[in-house]
Amino acid sequence: MTTDHTDSAPIVRKDDLLSPFVEACKPPSQWRIGPEMEKFGIFEKSRQPIPYEGDRSVLRFLEELVRSSGWTAERERADGPIVALLKGGASVTLEPGGQLELSGKMSDDVHEIAAETRDHLREIGPLSQELGVKWLGVGFHPFARREDFSWVPKQRYAIMRSYLPTRGAHALDMMLRTSTVQANYDYSDEKDAMRKMRVALALSPVTTAMFANSPWKEGQPSGGLTYRGRIWLDVDPDRSGLLPSLWRKGAGFEDYVEWALDVPMFLFKRDGRAIANTGQTFRGFHENGFEGHKPTIEDWKLHLNTLFPEVRLKKTIEIRGADTQTTLAAALPALWTGIFYDEHALGEAEAMVEGWGHDDSAELRTRLWREGLQATFRQNKLAYFAERLVAIAEQGLARRARIDPVTRQDERVHLAGLRTLVGKGLTPADVLLHGMDREKDPAAAIVARTAFDLG
Question: What pTM value is reported for the model?
Fold first, then answer.
């Protein structure tokens, strides 16, 4: 992957660690939305995950996208396997278990995101039909066991596969069996970034509950609504969670840097080769080096990308706490666009979470994976806060007034389905589970209810 020419420079002073965030600041006129969506590929007949290699594989899809749709293959080294594709500011990447992820271009509005997603699904449609593959939009694989997956041959994943199980019993499940939808947002300055981070962290449990969409494990009900949410409670406490140091007013980029410095690393790279230094914090790497190597800005940026809090700060603010969706695929970026990119809406959301504390929200995460929007918090059901949040976002989108030239509708159209659900106190998982006890072939029904329309 290409990097800025300054990325190879050594880290000399603490300001160097702040530079990725400071350099990312931009005026509101340049703000964009960066969507990400993962999905599971399965063989429809066997319901097994498709492997990375072979005649009927993820690699076959990547090669076909290069051949037929103008994507460019990316490798970690010149003679290495394909691990990603690039085209027009977008990328197609792979999660460890072969989950196919579309990281869309930075878009002006949610209409562009929805259109890009439809185009991507159409691109993979013909080969999917030929190979008998369905793509599932669900947060946890509904059928597969860990041993059913082949691993994507990416250097980072091999290191994570060895290290992360020492930090949490469900780490391998996170890597292989979870799938998410995410959205990335710009910020104007440090104050704006920290304000958005505080609001998003406080509302992260509400977001997770609203988008709960993983009620099955190995073909059976999991006992909850977002089993992906359950998995993330036991992955790696060093690099995940709700970032308690950022909840206080007055927190800044330096607070995030201080947290990141004390998170153990996975690796750094030299000449395209991964060097594992698992367990050494970046602070230790900065102070002592590793096997004669000293840290660079590129190493720091790579480390920042290996941190997994529910809301992540990089050159954008990344909302991470939602299960993958099918019919609601554009709802997450629509929700947070309406909040983050309208000053009045952001103020309303900020007022709503005034007084909310980290510890109470962290405790809520331990329950909401089972209870969804019916979980109680501050004497209310989460459905109450979800309804308020959707209403705030809708007004923000209305004020943005971005009209789709074809449908003549503004971005609120992408929140309509979510608004209906939260108004009934339901999550997508509640809908998936409804009537399943009457299905003659539950596995086929699961596929039918979670598969993307590739038309």
Answer: 0.96
